[in-house]
């Protein structure tokens, strides 16, 4: 990146510069994640850290991504806009980013858990699904007969 | 209120899954500056509380607050209107007009007496009630009448909260704030000119999901969650202030380097707001980031607090004329004092008697 | 609805400052002009040395302790230096104060960083406490000390302490503490011409006068 950074101009150069702006908040957040993961393993307590609740610059984001790394699992939810749920390179530590229908960020979280709640099928949805399945089967049956 | 369906039922009716509801609650919790662990409580509140009726009154205002709140991105005004509240009267946003609009207000008051929420933007002129009227009703009368059956009032914008620009010297309309008139109802002030959109929606959302008791306010009636710290405390330019690096003009080297704007009159050190962290336009920027000092718009009388471009440490009065007068007056008094001293000295010299050892011996 | 703290700050920046500045400038002029007008009897004797050069020299040499004095009264000398230099740095190198001077007389210079200013302010306050301690401890000084001296000591320390509190928001509302800081400085301004604080102006006149008498007699001062 540093090799071609000299050739960047205008907006791109500004964006590159911006990606290094740091508030120094990434380190304490990483420490918090560390403590949360210890708690998860010791007592099974899950925790959620709201990245929107603290000043967090692009440079902090960069450090967070660098330390946590990419993991094995990544899911995209299509619900009221999209949501990205990704396990980081540290199993048990998840990134959850919610976006609205226009792709604007709604909220960003780090969840320390074995499985984020939002990935699980919700009981109410399953109940609705059961009803829907019954209707579809009926329709199917009436069509084939 | 029984005929108003609860949010999860509404969502279900619109084909939105439970996951969508969870996502909505997580985002709402974050927007309300609450710890993420409270998301299930937010969900529970939304599941069990009926959407309360809200009556929005606009008095002496510029519609800037309404313009701003429609730009809130999380929760959006649509979220609030469709999911959390029942906005029964807002003369800028509602489709009905004239008599029909006023009837909507009266009906909402009648149906929800004692339980509805009143949101006010704009100050109230008491110099002459005719300065500002809606449907022939003066602002003062409408506020008193509507407030009577309200559970609580949210004063949105510095005009409603503290009198704002209409209240600025010489205050030709005799403009006052909501709390200057209504004293027997809980009032939450959400000042700003305009307030940060998501601060407005978040305060409303928190009020509606967790109730009045959940909102801790300061001495000026502002929620501490959003008005607890000064902008200076959280400003990304603060390190330059600490290093003693200041922009001296809007186009000098320091301004280009992004140095502190204190000397250009920034009111960040005495202004409480989350502008520096929450920012504006979906978190894009805020005035100081755009290169202009803070005007202090969340504070009472910000318009009359000594000039927008004068640093806080610089005197705001008529000291130059007085200083010159002091030079002349001090010098004149000094000459007079010196003359008196000289006269005393001369008199003492005249009265001086020489004394020798014999005289002293005689005396003793 | 008003914020009483803002009203206080605006009073401190407005009428309060006007009053303090008028008294400070008027008072200094009153006293200096009075001293000059009072004059001295003309010395008709032929000078044996150079009164002017000795007078000017003395203005500076009296800032250096005389031989042996540093050992006799270390707290007075070291405390005195630390207080004066610290107060000078804290006053003249904080950005907010430079903005004030700039507004008053149009002069501007670079500001120092927070660490330097706060170290200087803290050292000044410690020096003041040490000086106060010697006033209590030393019987001669205790006998010489009057109300005026304690007043001046407290008035010089207050702006340093309140300024530190206001900038770092140690306690109190930031607006209130800023108002309190400005008011404390205004008290110092008002007291200045009528207390021993006036030495900051008259020291040069007094030293020149003493030096020139010696110079006239052909002595080193």
TrEMBL record, chain A:
It comes from Sinisalibacter lacisalsi. It comes from the Bacteria. This is HupH hydrogenase expression protein C-terminal domain-containing protein. Coiled coil: none annotated. Residues 25-138 form the HupH hydrogenase expression protein C-terminal domain. Signal peptide: none annotated. InterPro entries: HupH_C_sf (IPR038527), HupH_Hydgase_express_prot_C (IPR006894). Belongs to the HupH/HyaF family.
TrEMBL record, chain B:
Heterodimer of a large and a small subunit. It comes from the Bacteria. Residues 62-206 form the NADH:ubiquinone oxidoreductase-like 20kDa subunit domain. It is found in: Cell envelope. Keywords: 3Fe-4S, 4Fe-4S, Cell membrane, Iron, Iron-sulfur, Membrane, Metal-binding, Oxidoreductase, Signal. It comes from Sinisalibacter lacisalsi. Its EC number is 1.12.99.6. This is hydrogenase (acceptor). InterPro entries: Cytochrome-c3_hydrogenase_C, NADH_UbQ_OxRdtase-like_20kDa, NiFe-Hase_small_C_sf, NiFe_Hase_small_N_sf, NiFe_hydrogenase_ssu, TAT_signal, TAT_signal_bac_arc. Residues 227-306 form the Cytochrome-c3 hydrogenase C-terminal domain.
From TrEMBL, chain C:
The keyword Nucleotide-binding does not apply. Keywords: Membrane, Transmembrane, Transmembrane helix. InterPro entries: NarG-like_sf. The chain crosses the membrane at residues 20-38, 75-95, 115-135, 147-167, 187-209. Gene3D superfamilies: Transmembrane di-heme cytochromes, Chain C (1.20.950.20). This is Nitrate reductase.
